[in-house]
Amino acid sequence: MEIRQLEYFLVLCSELHFTKAAEKLNISQPTLSHQIKVLENELGIPLFDRLGKKIAITEAGKILHEQCTHIFRAIDNTSNQIIELKELKAGKLVIGTLPGELTNLVSDYLLGYHLEYPDLQICINSTDDLLKQFKDNKIDFAISYKQEYFDYEVEQLQIIPLFTEELLFVAHIEHPLLASEKIALQDVLELPLILFPTIHQCRKVIDSAARIEKLHVKPKIETASVQAIFKLVEQNVGATIISKTLCNLYKTNTICERPIYNPPLTREIVLLYRKDKFINFAAKAFIRLMVEGLEKAGFSISEKSQLLIQSLIKSQ
């Protein structure tokens, strides 16, 4: 069984037409037919059902297709490692993030990363569908909130918790509730609130906690603009519930924050990467720089997570 034959086989699986596949491979149709026949003879079983001019993949063909995908991914990983050595650690990095705070969080480390590694290219891919990006092999790693990743999480993704982020009550400094050191969620939800729309990750945490406590979330204003939320709070139009990360970024002298209790609102930020994907030097360098920055900023990363991250960074 030769790599060339497997390449021919994968293209034919994609086209399901000998002539079209041969044209795509830039070989003659008889040559393609012969190579597929040789492959079938070696395996001792048909890989395609010939239905006149049409063909269909057999069960054996489906098994070979799945294994071929793993084989060529392994070849790509090997090639990437060798290219990285040849290019003296030059490379490209694509980071996946959920839109919103996490894009801002990752972006905060771009300047330091560029100054330390000016020859490395970097792209931040902000998307709501990180799973598809992983499945399509479009990103090197991702920063996300802990979510339900179903079977794909167990089979393909390595998940390393980074830190737990708190959502805070934020209001104008003259707001009467700020007299308390911490504020019950029920009291907050009775106020005129300016919140993110329901599709936003921050809002999902609020809505979920409210459902559990049998409370209602009825914001006065909904907007996806972080700047607009803080401007409205500064003008005392209403209060908000927002992440500590954004509060630190946009807080001014005219607003103040307090923790929420009963229940506290928190979410876990995690590092995600594919177990079967080679993590290149560019990715390892950014992860190291980001983790160091988070620790300096006072975020608590567990000892177990630190060991996992160090093992990842030092892996060959």
Automatic annotation (TrEMBL):
Which Gene3D superfamilies does the record associate with it? 3.40.190.290, Winged helix-like DNA-binding domain superfamily/Winged helix DNA-binding domain
Q: By its UniProt entry, which Pfam families does this protein fall under?
A: HTH_1, LysR_substrate
Q: Where are the transmembrane segments?
A: none
| Matching InterPro entries | HTH-type_LysR_regulators, LysR_HTH_N, LysR_subst-bd, WH-like_DNA-bd_sf, WH_DNA-bd_sf
The residue ranges of the HTH lysR-type domain are: 1-58
Report the domain of life of the source organism. Bacteria
Q: Which PROSITE patterns match?
A: HTH_LYSR
Matching CDD domains: PBP2_LTTR_substrate
Cite the entry's keywords alphabetically.
DNA-binding, Transcription, Transcription regulation
SUPFAM superfamilies the UniProt entry points to:
Periplasmic binding protein-like II, Winged helix' DNA-binding domain
The protein's matches in PANTHER family, at most eight in alphabetical order, are given as: HTH-TYPE TRANSCRIPTIONAL REGULATOR YBHD
Entry similarity comment? Belongs to the LysR transcriptional regulatory family.
The protein's name = LysR family transcriptional regulator
Can you name the source organism?
Lysinibacillus zambalensis
